[in-house]
Amino acid sequence: MTPATLEQNYWDIVEGQSQEIDVDYGNDVDTTEIGSGFPISERGRSVNSPNFLLKDSEKELTEPSFGTEQYYKETYWNLNNIPNSKNSVLRHVKVGINGINVPWLYFGSLFSTFCWHNEDNHMYSINYHHRGAPKQWYGVPGTKHDADGVERVFKNYLAMKLRDAPDLIHHITTFFSPRLLHQDGVNVCKLLQNEGEFIVTFPRAFHGGYSLGPNCGEAVNFALHDWIPHAVDANERYRTFGRPSVFSHDRLMYTIANHTSELRTKEICNAVSMELRRLMGEELLLRTKLIRSGIRDVSKEVQLPPNRLDQLDEMSADYDDKRLCHSCKHICFFSAVACECSESKVSCLRHSHYMCRCSVKRKYLLVWTTEQEMKDTISRVEKRGEEVEYANPAAAAASPQVVSKGALKDAPGADKDRANHCSFEVPVDPICTLHYAPEIPTLISSDVSCGSSGSKDGPAVKTDTQLSQQNEQIKNEQTIPNSSIDSNQDSNINVLMDNNPQTELLLMSSTNSDSQKTNPVSDIANENPDIGVVFKPSEIISSDHNTSDGNGAASDDFSA
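^ that's the sequence the OP posted. Answer follows.
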């Protein structure tokens, strides 16, 4: 089976509904629970590092040599480390957020799907393919022309669904052919990701795809300073849908501004300063309007705890969760409107009139950040901008370029990739070794065809003798090549592995069997045949009549 053949089969199923299939997958698997495919840093570069918050963990240490064990622990290509790299603004987020600065693992199977979506807060993402069959990716550039085009196609073809769920595009449950996007003038790229390869998605870039067989991948987010304008756009969209953000945009901007020494170029300083001025302008304008309308300013009588600006930690995140706007779910970082009718409900300055029906005389303004504090922060950033240089002086002096709306040019090597797409044989071997598990109990199958003896009146039952013979055969062979299993043996294995929710898939390591903290996927990343982990299918595997996977949530609403 080639990628081209499987691609045709996939869209026949999704668009033509030629058949209904079940797809098993394990998506959004928490690496803090079962481990990452990458080793954990000893220098505190990962949120999961024991010394993560220790400032002196990297003091006077040189970078390890390429190819050494320490290199793979400390390199920022390690997905545990990249959110905290020196140029990533997420390094200021000191609380672990699964899927954002803590990687997720994905265990795919044939046609398991991650539907059309872009990343939370329109951040960058990076996906690494540890092992197994390739993944077919489709991508749309994050330009206004193309990203707006994806949303336009959603509205044109899914108008009824959008009426019931206006934020359907954020559900990651809908996948339609890139042909529809292409017909509407949207640029679409496609790429086959093989094991050992990274894929990076850019801010607001829509992407989706599916697996061509069993595989294991890992993904996480990061954000550079050029992401800031995209973050503004994402924040406004979330407020439109009343969708909470994964962290406070306003807090992150002021935390970045509080670390002026890390603003290394004039481009970065200009981007941060521009956003701070935008935030201050709206804040002061709305405060003035609300006070003139009759809302009381109690900032002089009520002393609120100051916003912490050195880092975004767990305590800060918990405090922010308590001041979500009642209407748009925006975190009220600078100020909020409250009413005497409620001790917990607050509103952002935009939506105070939606909070309750009480008279404006009962409402009052709470202020965490004063006007002078805002001005001082902007002044520090602009002063830093005068001290640093442009990273690219020629680009800064040139006039802004208009993004072309024409067809995209082929990337280097595209011709070779097209040839492989039509001729490459997709590997379908299992990504791990199945070992003998003597504690597996006697199992009863609900499928009559699975047993060696059965009756029309009830399910076939495997006798103790038959199970003993089968287990002895598995024990002697240790591994079961995919091509050597006959139909009867295959059915028996299905009985053992799939039809009992209490059955554990044991992937036992000969060297790490005594360790209780074995990294479950690090051996996969190193292509070691010995895996040290116990997976419970009932915990990490689910089944759906629709194709859904890896980079999106499970769905029973798979739209074609």
